Amino acid sequence: EAATPAESGRSSAEMWWQPAARVGGTQGWGRAIPAALLAMLVAIVSGGPAAQAEDALVSSKIMMGGASTFDKGSRKTITRGMNLDKANYSNQDLSGVSFQQSIVRSANFKNSKLTGTSFFDADLANCDFTGAEMDQANLELARLTGANLNNAVATGMYVNGTTKMEPASIEGADFTDTAFRKDQLKYLCAIAKGTNPVTKVDTRESLMCP
Length: 210
Prior knowledge:
The chain is mainly α. The chain has 6 helices and 2 strands. The protein has helices spanning about 5-10, 20, 25-45, 50-65, 180-190, 205; strands spanning about 70, 75.
């Protein structure tokens, strides 16, 4: 029997994704979508902070954006083509989540775990990836104009010639084993400085700047 928010010690807004995490297939989505909408209504009607209602809305967009597949017990959410501008994903584990072809401008990914996360063809302009763990993230066709990658562990990422790699700041970022095109490398080396606080790797050395 499912626990109520009061029994679990969590708010209704925090309970929105539990059905999706436990129930697979079409039936699971049928239960999860009403739960997400209910969480938003509860937050608004109860006079809760507007930010809480907004967070519930953003989270429900992730859930309803596409399919949920299960691989070895893990959940992979697809948000193909969703508008997630200014979303707050700070301090979250979003490993394996796919934001492909989504508009995620000015979103907050500060200190988030983004291992293997796909940003294929996503608009990430002005996003904050400060301190994020981005090992093996997919940035093919992504646009990072004005993004903040300070202190990010951006190792082994997939970047190709179609990636618009023009972040505003990369101080302390570790790009070890991430291959860049010559023009991308020239741009990054021009603003590279600092040492990553986690890996202790010098940013310029990780880029192999001349």
